[in-house]
Every structure is written in C-alpha cells, then in structure tokens.
Amino acid sequence: MARKKPARSQKPRRKTAARGRHSVISAAGAATLSNAKLSLTERAYAEIRRRVITLAFRPGEFLNESMICASLGIGRTPVHEALHRLQLEGLVQIVPRKGVMIRNDSLNDVVALIETRMVVEPAGMALAAERAQLSHLRSLEALLRLARQAIKQGNRAAYMVLDAEFHNEIVRATGNSVLADVIRMLHQRASRIWHLQVWNEADLRQTQVEHEAIFEALKSGNGDSTAAAARAHLTSLRGRIQDVVSMKNAAE
107-251: which CATH architecture? Predict the structure, then answer.
C-alpha cells in the first residue's frame, strides 16, 4: 500500500499572512504620517495666509522661513510647502538667498484684480443661478441676515468674514471645482483691501445692497440677471477703489 504523503505545513501561509499584515500596518502608518503632514501644511497655509490678508505680515516685508516656523510652531517642510502654495496665489514671493517677500499690492493692483474678477465672476454666478440647490439658497439667506446685523453693530471684521463666505457659497453652488479655485484665489487676493483704511459704513451698506441684488437674481434661477448683478457689484467696487486712488494721488 502506498504511503500517504504528510500534510504540508501551514507555516509558509502564516508567514505570508503575517507579511501581509505588516504591509497593511506599514501602509496605514505611512497614510497616518502623510495625513499629519498634510494637516500641518494646511495649518501653516491657513495661518500664514491669515497674517498676510490681515496685514499682520506687512506688504513689502521680508521674512525668512526659520522665523515663520518659530512664529507658527510648525516645522520647515509644511511651512515651505505652504509658502509655495501662497506664491502661486500671488500673496508672497520667494526670493532665493533673501527670503520671503510679502507681495506689496497697491490700490492700483487691487483695481486690476477687480477687473480680472469682472471677467470671471459674472459667468460663475450665472452658472450658480442655474445649479443652486435649496441648501445653497438657505445658506446665502442666512449669511445676508448675519451681514445686516454686522452692519448695525458696526462690526467691519465680522462683515469681512461674511462677505467672503457669501462669495464662497455661490462658488460652491456652481459645482465646478476648477472655476471655484480660480474665483476663490482672486477673491482672497483682493480681500486685503478690507484691512486698508479706505472703507466706511456707507461702503458696507452699499456692498450689502449689491449682495442682496445678487441673491434675488440668483434665487430666481436667471443666469443673465445674476451675471448682470455681479457685474454691477464689481463695477461699483472698482469705482469706489478708483476714487480712493484718485484722492491719494491728488494728496501726493
């Protein structure tokens, strides 16, 4: 009678399985490290950008990465990546062997940014009018209500935040991430104007009237009317900035 062959040992399979578990653990560890790095980069980006927008980092000022790292309590790599992202957005300029320069946008530069927004934003708002969901409309209505309260309280800082969120919500309503990135970058770069001493309460009230008009047109679902309201808002904004430029030039 032929002898039965002994059953194969299961050890190789267990070792393979162990190797597989180690691979999964290693991949999970790498993903965790990657997420941590991404989180630090996002934190660095948000904080540096906030300081640039609010003029805590002054236009024309030269900084170095080591100082920024110490100020934020974040390592060099996330700060370095955040600065390159901000350079793409036009908020800083990385100068080899010198450091990081905060872009010195003059009022004339702000006018140029608004003119660029006039090319892009009306089309974006028209698209938002066609695609906005009820949730977007409710969010916009709530933001406008809060903005009215901010004006009554004379709270320009709160109004600035609500202005940005109003435009961001319209951008979200387009459902177009590429267009959203372009509009958001332009709007963010121009938002430094809020921190220059050129605005008064009348400007806030005028901006609010124009935002209300945009919302009413958008709510109707009429893309052409929404685009026209957006152009009227940006034309008004450009005119007010140009008046300030003219006054400054006359004073000089």
Answer: Up-down Bundle (1.20)
Torsion angle of the four alpha carbons 129, 130, 131, 132, in this order, in degrees rounded to the nearest 10: 30
| Residue showing tokens 């009018």 | 129
188 is written with which tokens?
Answer: 């963010």
What DSSP string runs through 79-136?
HHHHHHHHHHTTSEEEETTTEEEEP---HHHHHHHHHHHHHHHHHHHHHHHHH--HHH
Architecture per CATH, 26-102: Orthogonal Bundle (1.10)
Domains 26-102 and 107-251 share a fold: no
What is residue 63's three-state secondary structure? strand
pLDDT of residue 215: 98
What digits encode the pLDDT tens for the residues 111-164? 888 899 999 999 999 999 999 999 999 999 999 999 999 999 988 888 988 998
Query: Whole-prediction pTM value?
Result: 0.66
> Is beta strand 62-63 parallel, antiparallel or unpaired with respect to 99-102?
antiparallel
Contacts of 146 (CB under 8 A, 6+ apart): 158, 162
Q: Locate tokens 């934190």: which residue?
A: 43
Nearest alpha-carbon partner for 179 in 124, 218, 223:
124
Residue ranges per domain, the chain?
Answer: 26-102, 107-251
Adjacent-strand bridge partners of 62 = 101
